[in-house]
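R.M. (postdoc): so does anyone remember the format we settled on? I'll just put the structure tokens first.
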């Protein structure tokens, strides 16, 4: 149950550390509440408590993120030890997490709790401090924003794997021609460096610009660094590693058989300190 609760909190706040803090705080409140009067449905109580606390954290975080240097991307959940992994619904891709950042805290909470975790509107209304009717309107607006902003992944599994492997081989091999064959005409690359010098502070648009940016990153890799495929938020991605140390992580979003988004996280606080990969 704890992993599911962390998944709820992560979907709302966008970072694993804050999500874990939210769950720990809510768990203590659960223990205190149960001591006063036994809680009949522990999981339902905990989900509501986590959501309420996460909303408070999200509202506070939005102020900090508005002052962030360059684009702010969610913390990637990278496939490593399953015991330590955040449990994510398959619909919460990295690209979707990026889109959720554009919603208000109330819209995001409503969308996540209703669309992903199936909470009814009256329960959500109590969490966000609105009426059920107002929450329904929040859901409509949030659904429209998400539909407009999140690429629809509609490729078959075999095509998905082929595009991903072609993309990674082209980047690793410095092959611009091959890379251009899998980049969507509207591809966009965003990098989050948290103010680190040398990281693009604005999104890069178009196949040629994105392709050259990626190959420039590849050329700057130091001796001993390697590019490896990883799973990011349940989808394809890559990491640049020095031994077991992660230098940065990239999430790849595919739509229509091509790469539509590349999101690169360089900010050290958002990277797994150690990542065991083959």
């Amino acid at each position: 149950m704890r992993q599911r609760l962390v998944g709820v909190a992560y979907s709302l706040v966008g970072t694993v550390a804050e999500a874990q803090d939210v769950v720990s705080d809510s768990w203590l409140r659960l223990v205190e509440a149960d001591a006063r009067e036994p809680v009949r449905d522990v999981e339902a109580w905990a989900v509501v408590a986590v959501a309420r606390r996460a909303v408070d954290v999200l509202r506070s975080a939005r102020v900090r993120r508005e002052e962030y240097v360059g684009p702010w991307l969610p913390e990637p959940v990278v496939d490593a030890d399953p015991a330590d992994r955040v449990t994510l619904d398959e619909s919460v891709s990295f690209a979707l997490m990026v889109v959720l950042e554009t919603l208000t805290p109330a819209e995001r909470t409503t969308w996540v709790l209703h669309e992903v975790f199936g909470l009814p509107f009256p329960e959500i209304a109590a969490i966000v401090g609105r009426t059920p009717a107002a929450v329904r309107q929040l859901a409509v607006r949030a659904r429209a924003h998400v539909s407009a902003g999140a690429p629809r992944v509609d490729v078959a599994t075999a095509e998905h794997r082929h595009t991903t492997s072609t993309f990674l081989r082209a980047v690793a091999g410095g092959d611009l021609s091959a890379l251009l064959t899998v980049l969507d005409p509207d591809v966009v690359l965003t990098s989050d460096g948290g103010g680190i010098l040398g990281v693009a502070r604005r999104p890069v648009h178009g196949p040629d610009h994105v392709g050259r940016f990626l190959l420039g990153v590849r050329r700057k890799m130091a001796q001993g660094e390697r590019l490896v495929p990883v799973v990011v938020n349940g989808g394809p991605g890559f990491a640049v590693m020095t031994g077991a140390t992660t230098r940065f992580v990239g999430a790849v979003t595919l739509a229509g058989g091509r790469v539509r988004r590349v999101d690169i996280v360089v900010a050290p606080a958002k990277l797994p300190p150690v990542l065991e990969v083959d």
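R.M.: ...and that's the designed sequence above, right after the tokens. Also worth knowing: The CA atoms of residues 176 and 211 lie 6 Å apart. Residues 157-270 form a domain with the Nuclear Transport Factor 2; Chain: A, fold (CATH 3.10.450.50).
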